[in-house]
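Next up, a specimen:

>
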Amino acid sequence: MDIKNIDDKILYTDDCATMRDTVTAAVRAGINLRGADLVGANLGGADLRGAELSRANMSISNLRDANLVGANLGGANLSRADLSNADLRDAEMIGANLIGADLSDANLRGAYLRRATLSGANLRGANLRRANLGDAELFDANLSGANLSRAYLRKANLGSADLSGANLSRANLGSANLRDAVGIS
């Protein structure tokens, strides 16, 4: 099976039966998957620790329960992807597109999401402790029950976001837009 980039250039090839196994093998081999075209890929439960997936297109992909600890997803397109219960601790996601993504119960502790777009994303119950969401776009995001303690949200747009039951203890909300946000007291 081949992993190609958006220009149809082959980044990696092997004889694995599934895209999940192919991507896992590429990551284990240390292959740079920058710009990979993985639209709609079923990568649920895959071990992608430390993967180089910057600028990859993984929109509408299944990454449920995937291990992406320390992965580089900077500038990646993860719009409408299922990342529920994924482990994204310390992942680099600067400028990533996560519009409408499902990150419910995901572990994003220490993740770097500066300037990421998470409009309409579901982050219900997510762990964002010490995550950097500076200048992030979180308009209409569901952050109910999320742990945002010590998160950096300076200049983030949380307009119309649902923060019901979210833990914001010691979070930096300097200059953040909280207009029409729900659950802020």
